[in-house]
């Protein structure tokens, strides 16, 4: 007899909601502003998740936050502590700035949304083969779209899967005027989305017996990895490091490599590439210089925003340093701390003076650490970091989780990355134990 208990219905509802949410990530339907059709599923996901906790007889804010008096919180516990603590700080910012600062709740709501996504997907009960098949189909669709995008200019097809920027053609970075973005609309969003199907395939890769295949067949993974990375190279997104981190970890089970030495090498590769990427953030790398050190060491574009946020934090009152200054004050104070001369000098070198007003008025920090310090202060940032580090430790696939988390934390140096939906879904899929 098939299982028809309420628990079975809960699992079925969760699986359907999770599948539909991922499908709507693949084919995003905008609703206006920053909202997408997938966001309408969030209340139902939250209800199913709470139903699961109630069915399991667990007290959400007790069992998950701390197992006992003598243990550190679990991964979910750190996440819940972060959300509660940041909510308290958000309410303090609203009290301090008046009712006009109620939109501060939006900033907290974004991370609450991400937290619900993680908690929901980390509790799914899935079969490794089914999950891997879905991930492989998704990668196949992306590669087909990439092939179409490559032949489109020659066959005079529409550029459906590319992000085009006519403005970039007149700048010193004209090579970035046409970048692969799949259906995400933005190449950097594609860079955060692409690790998802590989996280879906990871449980199968790590539990499958690869020794039944001769080495010559397993070596095909190497050129296949190169092919898989081509869409990321075409997107020119630094977030491609996230996908590379997962693929590097696959070498351990496929070739039966010793885990600790291979993990150490993988981390060195990730950090080495990240260091090169960070140089392009800190300094203007286009054009290069004709004399030592052969690159233009003037302030890079992202560093303009990051420097402004750093000055806002360091020049704020003591309470602002401790609990953050909040989104409202940050938007008001931005123009008072921006280095106008550096903005002008940098944009002139990029031939991008059309963006001057935007740069001196208000911009996102392009750095998640500065973003968290401004919104919620250092203690909230520490809880968030502990959450991601504990995820790497508690994952059933610690090698891939560690590489992914290290890559994620380095990518946070050049983007406020933790407001991206797919990042949290990917992280959650790396924590589940499949059947």
Please write out the topology.
Blueprint: H1 6-26, E1 30-32, E2 35-36, H2 42-55, H3 60-63, H4 75-97, H5 104-121, H6 128-155, E3 162-164, E4 178-180, H7 187-193, H8 195-207, H9 215-218, H10 221-235, H11 240-254, H12 259-282, H13 301-314, H14 318-323, H15 326-337, H16 340-349, H17 356-361, H18 368-375, H19 378-394, H20 398-411, H21 421-429
Antiparallel strand pairs: 1-2, 3-4
Helix pairs in contact: 1-2, 2-5, 4-5, 4-19, 5-21, 6-8, 8-11, 8-21, 10-11, 11-12, 11-20, 12-20, 13-15, 13-18, 19-20
Defining key terms:
single chain, 435 residues, two-stranded antiparallel sheet, 4 strands, 65% helix
Write structural notes for this entry.
Helix content is 65%, strand content 3%. Helix 1 (6-26) packs antiparallel against helix 2 (42-55). It has 435 residues and is an all-alpha fold. The protein has helices at residues 6-26, 42-55, 60-63, 75-97, 104-121, 128-155, 187-193, 195-207, 215-218, 221-235, 240-254, 259-282, 301-314, 318-323, 326-337, 340-349, 356-361, 368-375, 378-394, 398-411, 421-429; strands spanning 30-32, 35-36, 162-164, 178-180. A hairpin with a 2-residue loop joins strand 1 and strand 2. The chain is built from 21 helices and 4 strands. Mean pLDDT is 88; it is low at 67-71. It has a two-stranded antiparallel sheet with strand order 1-2. It has a two-stranded antiparallel ribbon with strand order 3-4.
